[in-house]
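Example 3.2
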Amino acid sequence: MSNPKQIAIYGKGGIGKSTTTSNIAVALAEAGYRVIQIGCDPKSDSTNTLRGGKYLPTVLDSTRDGEKVSLSDISVVGFAGVLCIEAGGPVPGVGCAGRGINAAVSLLQDLNLYEEFNPDFVLYDVLGDVVCGGFAVPIREGLADKVYVVSSSDFMAIYAANNLFKAINKYAPSGGAQLGGIIANGLVAPYAKSLVDDFASRTGTSVTQYIPRSLVVSQSELYGKTVIEANPASSHADLYRELARRVAEDIETVIPKPLNITELREWARDWGDRILNEELGVVTQIQAAI
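Structure, written as tokens:
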């Protein structure tokens, strides 16, 4: 058995990382690869669109009572043959949410997951608002071969991405994972692509794929499906297929150069001025025409 490629996909809550991860998983499976997706968000909803929203016992829930757990207890084969696993989180108000990742990784190793399923790719869908010790496991311990960061052009998404860059920058020199690239998701404003490109340039990184906002994505999720399942002939399905191809084939990785908080704030203010001037320019042109 060859070692699977392990990919960690990070992003702030609500940025679309689970949607992105699930569509990458299906696209890889569609291309003939064996894929495991491990949800590392305490909400335990990473794999929902791969399994029709059906309940899946999480690793933490299954191990909480101390009983022996088998792989079949905590996994289900979803759409296109993707094996779905949810790490889970602690009882609300108690414990560290990041602990689920540690528990999941440890248990899955004990259960000989790779020998049993023989995957080509393992995708970790990880919450990236706060890179605490638990959530940083795929980065810190070199569990992942490379990391992708999902971000929009919103400042808080960029802020979260920059924090993730700090974690990668800290651990990569000692064997931690490096960055594969930025996945620019949900782009809608005319300046969005330029803003993300500029952030990438300032941090020594690059954008792997641009995913514009689309009703096709929202519609597919309302059906409880990935875009590739619900709308296989759509342009967005092809965007995810191309993204998956790049994730599978690109071998270049970098250690990002994150901005310090002063640099980030100044960069954000500069972009705020650019956007305001652009809007005022549009208004002025309209008034002049009248």
